[in-house]
Write a structure and sequence with these properties.
The chain is α+β, with helices and mostly antiparallel strands and 106 residues long. Helix content is 39%, strand content 19%. It is built from 4 helices and 4 strands. It has helices at 9-23, 48-52, 66-74, 94-105; strands at residues 36-41, 53-56, 61-64, 83-88. The strands form 2 sheets. A two-stranded parallel ribbon has the order 1-4. The chain is flat, with a radius of gyration of 16 Å. It starts with 8 loop residues before the first helix and ends with a helix.
Length: 106
């Protein structure tokens, strides 16, 4: 969701999360409505390397960023029908959104 500060984006997201969770049918894992878990982070509160990860040229090691950890946590339990949303809650910045487009393209 993209919009102005105070425009109700977070409220809309929480309302949709609550509605999907309440409509979830525990006896039907194939139901389009399942319990929703939201993983929220502010991409402007950390550096690009902390957000996406970085490669150390000296040690030749990759260090995962917060986004990779959140995604890994969201898909950890594949047997659960629960849905996981990763919400980047903060001001849209051309630098981090362009990096996000690159990550999603790969």
């Amino acid at each position: 969701l993209v919009g102005p500060t105070g425009g109700g984006k977070t409220s809309c997201c929480r309302t949709l999360q609550q509605a999907c969770t309440r409509l979830a049918d525990a006896s039907s894992p194939a139901s389009p409505y399942q319990k929703v878990h939201v993983h929220c982070l502010n991409p402007k509160a950390i550096t690009q390397n902390q957000l996406y990860g970085s490669f150390d040229e000296v040690t030749r090691e990759w260090a995962d960023g917060v986004a990779a950890e959140e995604i890994r946590n969201a898909v950890r339990d594949a047997s659960s029908p629960d849905h996981h949303w990763i919400m980047f809650d903060g001001p849209v910045d051309a630098l981090w959104i362009e990096s996000m487009n690159t990550v999603l393209d790969d």
